[in-house]
Write a structure and sequence with these properties.
The chain is an alpha/beta fold. It is 40% helix and 15% strand.
Length: 383
Amino acid sequence: MADCKKIPYGRQSIDEQDLKAVADALNSGWLTTGPRVAEFERAVADMSGVAHGVAVNSGTAALHAAMYAFDVQKGDEVIVPPMTFAASANCVAYMGAAPVFADVDPRTLLIDPAEVEKKISSRTKGIIAVDYAGQPCDYSALREIADRHGLFLAADGCHSIGASLNGKCVGSLADITTYSFHPVKHMTTGEGGMAVTGNADYDKRMRVFRNHGITADFRQRDGWFYEMQDLGFNYRITDFQCALGLSQLSRLPEWIERRREIAAMYDKKFAAMEALSPLGRQAGAEHAYHLYVINLQGEKRSEKRKLLFDFLREHGLGVQVHYIPVHLHPYYKDNFGTHEGMCPVAESAYEGILSLPMFPLMEDGDVAYVVKTVEAALAENSA
Ligand SMILES: *Cc1c(COP(=O)(O)O)cnc(C)c1O
């Protein structure tokens, strides 16, 4: 392997149109909480098929705002999957509530509705489903469980913006859906996020929460009056970030198309390899492919994954492992009594998974290089 390319697992795309949009915003005089924030919220809510969007300064802030909207309190439990980024569970802990981990489906690594059902107690307030890698969870099963037990259903859609399930787009499948606009996600605002919802009350609560808990109603009153009615945060996003977001959003459909093409190329090559298999697909899902995850098969997966990871890194491929199951982090063990063996499916998946490079700017030649390098690694490891 003579030519050593450098290919990360994900990378943003910034073009002239983006630069112009940001410059225009900076020149407009509105740096924050101006017209571009509302415009960006409108555009993302529209593409999500719901009435409201609340833009904030990270995907994590969007999750926190959602938990506030649902009035999650100390003593409550919220069911989350372990196969996700820590923020999906941290937002529950921020409220003084307890995340309860429900194991994932071994094929898709999406939260398993049967496991959710088993974790419901008298304290359960809601469910956060995570659209791991970019395909929607089984929302019809989750909705049925949530309704039967009077729970909220949130979607962490940080991987799945632009995906759909049985023709219904992500954003309209749960009570509140959150997105992240970190550079490694589908589209970026630098840092940023949004919570979208069809519920006007949740929308209102999240708007107050992102601005210190201060109500906006003061504008109708004396010039100086305002009231802080609850404890909120400064989770505001700037106008120039939203200008970037709007510009990026216009290219999202073509980017997702390209991600699907890359996934199809990988699928075709990996179908023939016994040593690994791509993740299974959720029935009825149109995948957005934030990640392309392979899972090593057979004996000694953990050792083989380490060899594969090192080989690919040595050959310039920025592969990653998504994720260390959240319940195995020391913070959760120490504060919530989680432990090994609690979510055996996620723990076993973690031994063998690897995320390969996946971003729209990858050329066909890059995809071929990744496949060739994986083949070379497997040949070396079995030798
Ligand atoms: C990226 C991500 C987040 C957090 O988003 P930030 O914008 O980085 O705060 C939350 N959940 C999942 C599943 C993510 O991938």
